[in-house]
């Protein structure tokens, strides 16, 4: 009986920890300029994810070079940094079960032409260079990106009233 209770508690604890996975999502300058921030937030909220941080900033080239450092050797890197620093962006942190993977599905393919209808890029974008949103591609990159854009005090811990209606016990 004790072993069974411990097993149930262990499964519950792992499920609750999985619900705490975080991802980094950023509305790019074209998404901000087109007034799509609210639509994007709505998609994540409707899915059931919890917003734990959000900013409205004009990112420096230095910050953007750090953010996109894995692409530094690519020929499009200078143009990407220039474009991303051309206007304000909205970096956010979302939390929930499998939020990195599911967030990428909500975004759609990097190339909007390959994005399914119903996805953010599939419904709202035409070209890769104006695909309105960035999303972490793995938990590790999410953690790196979150730490780059937010300090610990900016990540809000809270419990939405809808929690029980989104997640099973």
Automatic annotation (TrEMBL):
Residue positions of the active site: 134
Keyword Cell inner membrane on entry: no
Keywords: ATP-binding, Kinase, Nucleotide-binding, Signal, Transferase
Catalytic activity: a 2'-deoxyribonucleoside 5'-diphosphate + ATP = a 2'-deoxyribonucleoside 5'-triphosphate + ADP
Binding site for ATP: 28, 76, 104, 110, 121, 131
Keyword Hydrolase: no
Pfam families: NDK (PF00334)
Cofactor: Mg(2+)
Gene3D superfamilies: Nucleoside diphosphate kinase-like domain
MF term (GO), any: nucleoside diphosphate kinase activity
Catalytic activity, EC: 2.7.4.6
Domain Nucleoside diphosphate kinase-like: 20-157
Any GO BP: GTP biosynthetic process
Position of the signal peptide: 1-17
PROSITE patterns per record: NDPK, NDPK_LIKE
NCBIfam families in alphabetical order: PRK00668.1
Protein name: Nucleoside diphosphate kinase
Organism of provenance: Sitophilus oryzae
Gene name linked to the record: LOC115875510
